[in-house]
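TA notes, week 10

Several of you asked for a full example with nothing omitted. So below is the full record: C-alpha cells for the whole chain, then the designed sequence directly under it. When grading your own attempts, check the secondary structure regions first.
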C-alpha cells in the first residue's frame, strides 16, 4: 500500500511539474509573441487589386455621362451568375438576391469574384467564366430566377457547410441589436463590423494557435492578459487602450472628433471586463470594434484613400493593428493565415468572402452609395 502511495505521489509530482513547465513555456510564448498567428500577404492579392481597379474605372463612368462600361458589366454579371449556377446553384441564388436587393452592378461583381476565388483550380469553371468575357449572351433577371430562385444544396464557401457556422450565425443573430446600436453610434456599416467579428470567430474555432492561447488562459494572472484576444471581436487590452487614447488625442491621425471623445466613458468596469462582458449582447465589445474600424478608416480617408467599401483591406488592418496601418494607393490583402478545412485564407480574404457571400443579408444588408 505504501509503495502504491509513493508511486502515486511521484506521478502526481511529475504531472504537476510538467504542467508548470508548460505554463512557463506558455508564459514566454505569449510574452514574446510565439503564439501570434503569422501574418501573410494573401496569395490572391493581385486578383483583388486588379478587380478593384477595374471596378473603380467602371464606377467612375457611371456618373453621369458614359454608361457603356456599366451596361457591359451588368451583362457580364448575369452571364457569370448563370455560370455559377451550373456548379453551385445556391450561390447563384445568393448573388441574384444581392443584386435584386441593391441594384448595384459593382456589388454584384464583387459577390461573383468571391465565388470565383474558390474556383481558381477548376478549369471547366474558369473556361465558363472566360466565355462571359467574350460573349455575355442575353441573360435577364427573370430567366436567372427561374433557373436558381429555389436552389438548395451545399455552399461553395466551405465554412458555411458545418455546425460551427450554424452556431456562429445563430449567436450573431442574437447580437443583432447590439451590433446595430454600436454601428449607428459610431457610424460604420454593420455588415463590415460583422465581417471582422465572424472571421475572428472562425479563426477561434479553426486555428490551433487560438486553442493553444485559450489553454493558457491562466496566464492572465501573470499580467499577460493584454497579449490575449478578448471578447467576440477578439480585441487585445493593449489595442483597446490605443483606441481610447486616439479618441482623446486631437493630434492623432486616428482622431474622430470631439463628439467621439467620451463615447466609452459610460461603460462600466475595467477594459478587460468591458471587452469580455456578455451584457446587452456583447455591446461593449462591438462598440470597441466599431471604433477600431472607424479610426483606421478615418486615417486612410484623411490621407486621401477611401477603404470604406473594401472589406478585404479593412479586415486586414483590423487584424494586423494600428502600427501596420499605413495609408497608400496599393494596400495589400493579408493578415493572419487561417485554414478552414482544405481552404486557405488570410484574415482579409475571409473578411471579403463573408461580406460578399450574400449570407445574412436580411440581417446585415449592403449599404451602398
Amino acid at each position: 500500500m505504501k509503495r502504491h502511495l509513493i508511486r502515486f505521489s511521484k506521478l502526481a509530482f511529475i504531472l504537476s511539474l510538467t504542467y508548470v513547465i508548460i505554463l512557463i513555456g506558455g508564459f514566454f510564448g505569449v510574452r514574446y509573441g510565439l503564439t501570434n498567428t503569422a501574418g501573410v500577404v494573401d496569395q490572391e492579392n493581385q486578383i483583388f487589386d486588379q478587380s478593384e481597379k477595374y471596378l473603380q474605372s467602371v464606377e467612375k463612368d457611371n456618373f453621369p455621362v458614359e454608361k457603356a462600361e456599366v451596361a457591359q458589366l451588368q451583362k457580364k454579371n448575369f452571364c457569370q451568375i448563370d455560370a455559377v449556377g451550373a456548379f453551385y446553384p445556391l450561390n447563384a441564388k445568393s448573388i441574384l438576391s444581392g443584386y435584386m436587393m441593391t441594384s448595384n452592378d459593382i456589388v454584384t461583381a464583387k459577390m461573383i469574384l468571391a465565388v470565383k476565388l474558390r474556383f481558381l483550380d477548376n478549369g471547366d469553371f474558369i473556361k465558363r467564366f472566360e466565355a462571359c468575357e467574350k460573349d455575355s449572351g442575353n441573360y435577364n433577371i427573370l430567366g436567372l430566377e427561374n433557373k436558381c430562385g429555389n436552389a438548395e444544396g451545399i455552399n461553395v464557401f466551405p465554412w458555411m457547410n458545418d455546425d460551427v457556422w450554424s452556431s456562429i450565425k445563430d449567436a450573431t443573430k442574437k447580437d443583432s441589436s447590439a451590433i446595430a446600436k454600436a454601428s449607428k453610434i459610431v457610424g460604420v456599416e454593420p455588415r463590415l463590423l460583422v465581417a471582422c467579428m465572424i472571421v475572428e470567430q472562425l479563426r477561434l474555432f479553426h486555428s490551433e494557435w487560438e486553442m493553444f492561447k485559450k489553454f493558457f488562459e491562466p496566464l492572465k494572472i501573470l499580467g499577460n492578459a493584454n497579449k490575449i484576444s478578448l471578447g467576440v471581436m477578439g480585441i487585445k487590452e493593449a489595442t483597446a487602450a490605443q483606441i481610447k487614447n486616439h479618441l482623446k488625442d486631437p493630434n492623432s491621425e486616428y482622431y474622430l472628433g470631439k463628439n467621439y471623445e467620451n463615447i466609452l466613458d459610460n461603460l462600466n468596469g475595467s477594459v478587460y471586463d468591458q471587452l469580455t462582458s456578455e451584457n446587452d449582447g456583447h455591446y461593449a465589445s462591438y462598440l470597441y470594434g466599431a471604433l477600431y474600424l472607424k479610426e483606421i478608416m478615418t486615417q486612410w480617408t484623411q490621407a486621401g484613400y477611401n477603404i470604406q467599401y473594401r472589406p478585404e483591406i479593412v479586415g486586414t488592418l483590423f487584424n494586423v493593428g494600428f502600427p501596420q496601418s499605413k495609408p497608400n494607393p496599393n494596400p495589400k490583402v493579408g493578415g493572419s493565415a487561417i485554414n478552414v478545412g482544405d481552404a486557405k485564407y488570410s484574415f482579409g480574404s475571409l473578411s471579403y468572402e463573408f461580406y460578399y457571400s450574400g449570407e445574412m443579408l436580411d440581417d446585415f444588408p449592403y449599404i451602398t452609395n
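The CA atoms of residues 135 and 150 lie 27 Å apart. Use that as a sanity check on your answer.
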